[in-house]
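Teaching soon. Got one?

===
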Amino acid sequence: MTSTLRATATHSLIALAACLSLLCAPAASATPVSPLPASDYRVRPACPEPLPGHAACLALALTPATAAARAHVRPLGITRNTPMQAPSPAEGAFGLRPVDLADAYFPGEPAEAAGPQTIALVDAYNDPDAEADLNTYSRTFGLPELARCAHGATSDCFEQVNQSGKTANLPFPQTNAEREAELEACNDEGAGESCEKVQEADGWALEMSTDIEISHAICQNCRILLVEASSTEYSDLEQAEDTAASLGASEVSNSWAGPEPGTDSSAFDHPGTVITAASGDDGYLNWTEALEASLFGEAYNVGANYPASSPHVVAVGGTKLTLSSKGSWQSESVWNDDPREGTEDHGAGGSACSRSFEAPAWQRALPDWSSVGCGERRAVADVAADADPYTGVAVYDSMPYSGEEPEGWEPIGGTSVASPIIAAMYALAGGAHGVEDPAQTLYSHLETKLLHPVTTGGNGECDASYASACTGSMSESSSRFAFDCGKGLLICNAAVGCEGHYYDGPAGVGTPDGIDALKPEVHTLKEPRPCEPGTNLEPSNSPEPKNSPGPKEEGPPANKGAGESTGGASVAGARSASAAGGVGTSAAGPTLSALSLTRAAILALNSTQPRASQVGFTFTISASARVHVTLARRVRVRGRGRWRLLADSLTINATAGHNSRRLHGRGTLAPGLYELTLTPLHGTAHSLTFTLG
C-alpha cells in the first residue's frame, strides 16, 4: 500500500512539473502568426474561357510567387497562435479547413444532416482519382471517409456517374493511362486538340475535387453524388443536371458558368430541389474579363452568367471572409480584387441584371428593389459565401496540371467554392422543405440575425473611387457600359444594411449565420437595423486605400491613351500598388513618389526594337533605402490575362530625394502592355504602366 502511494505521489509530482513547465513557457511561443501579403501569391484559373455554347469551371488556384509562400509555413485566411514547423493542411497552411468554414457559417451546430440528403455536384470530364482524393482530404481533417455507395444508399457514401447516370463508361479520361496517352500525343504535336482536351480535363478535375471535398466538409454524413458531363457543352451539362435530380439529389451545386441563352433550360426547373449556381469570378457584367479582352482585341461575355441567372436556381455570389483571432466570423465584404488597384487580378464576384429572364415576384418584392437597377429583370446574386482565393479553402487534388508535377494540396477560391458551401448548408438544414424555388427562403429572412450583412465594397470599376465618368446609367449604349458600375445602384455595390437597404447584387441577402437561414419554417422577428447618424443611404463602398493617387482617370481600359503619349509608346501615371486583398505595407517606411519614365526612355520606347536597358525612370523617396525594381508584361495564359515578370529585376540603393536609374539587360521589348514597379524596403510599392506598339 505504501509503495502504491509513493508511486502515485511521484507521478503527481511529474505531472505537476510538466504543468508548471508549460505555464512557464516563454511568451514568444504563443506569438500570433499571420498570413503573408496577398502580393506573395498569384491566381491561376483552373479552366480556360468557354467557347460559345460551352461553360467553364470557376475554380481559382492560389499559387505561391515568393520563396516565403512556397515554404507553406504561414497560414492562409486565418491567424494562428503558434508557428508551423512544416507545411500542414490541418494547421491552415493551404487555406481554410472544415472547422474554419463551420465556425464562419454555422458555429456550434453539427456538421451532419438530420435526415438523408444527397448533394450532387455537376461537372464535366472525369477524375479517375476523385474518390481517393476525397478520402485523403477526409483523413487529413479527421472527417469520416466515404465508401462507394451501395445500391439504394442514401447517406454516408460517394457515387460517381456519367451524364446518363451510369457508373461505367465515364467521360475522358476513364483512367490515368488514357490521360497519359493523350498527354503524350499533345507533347508530340506541341499544340492542338489533344493539348486542349488534357488541359480542360485537368482543370475540371481540380474543380471536382473542390466541389466534393467542400460539400463533404460542410455535411459530413451526406451522400455525395458526382455527375460528370461528357463535355463542356450546355446540352451535356444540362443532361447531367436532369440526371442528378432523377437520382434523388436534394441539392445540386454548379460551379461553372457561361453566357446566357435566350431561354431557360428545363434542366434547372426541378421544384423542391435546391439548385445552386456560382455567379462568376469576373465581377459586375464580367468587367474584369472585359478589361483583359480589350487589351488583346478579343470578345467577351458582357452580362449575367448562366445558370446563375436562371430564376429557378439559388445564385451564389462571392465575398472576402475575415475571421477573428479566435477563428469566429468577424466580417465579410464584397470580393473584388480590381486589377487596376495592384499588379495582379485575383478576380471579383459576379453580378448583373439578366438580359433573358424576369425577376421572380419574391425578388421584386424587396424593400430596396427600386435601388437595384434591374427593373423587371432577374438580379444576380441571391446569397453569398467566401470566394476570395486569398481567403480560400484547402483542397487536395492529385491530378497533375497539363504535364506539371501534381500539386496535391492547393488553396482554391472563386464562386465555385461558394456554391457548394451554400448547397451543403441547405442539406444541413434539411433541403428545400417543399419550397418550389428555395432561393425564396433566403429572402424571407431579410433583416434578421440569421444572415450576416455584407455592407462594404463593390464588384466593378467604380468600387471606392467614382470618377466623373461613372454614372447611374445602365444603358448598354453607353461607351462605358461594362466599366460603369452605376453610381447609386445596388446591382454592383454593397447595401448599407440599415433602414430597408439590405439586398445587393454582389452578395444578395448576405451570408448565412447558421442553418436556420435556409429553413422556411423558422420565423425570427424582424429586427431592422437603425442607421447610424450621418449614414449615407447610397451604396456603401470600401474607403479609398492609403497612399492612393486619387480617382481613376477617365479613358480607355488599362490607361491606354491616358497620360503622356509620344508616338507608339503610351505612358500612364504612377499609382500605389497596395497588396491585393487589403494587406498593405507599413506606413512607417520610406515614401516613394513622382515615379515617371525619363524623356530619353520615352523616345527610345518609340523605336522599333527598344531594349530593356533603355527603360530609364526617375522617382523621389523620403529617406535612403534599398528599392526593388521589377518589369512585368501583360500576357494571355490559358485564356486569361496575367502579369509575367521579366528577367530584368534589380535592387538599387536609393538616396533621399530625387533619383534617376535605368533597368539592366540587353533583351528587346516586344509590343504590349508593361508595368514598372518600385518597392522600397518596408515601404509601399508604386507602379506605372506603358504600352509599346
In short: The first helix runs from residue 2 to 23. DSSP finds twelve helices and 33 strands in the chain.
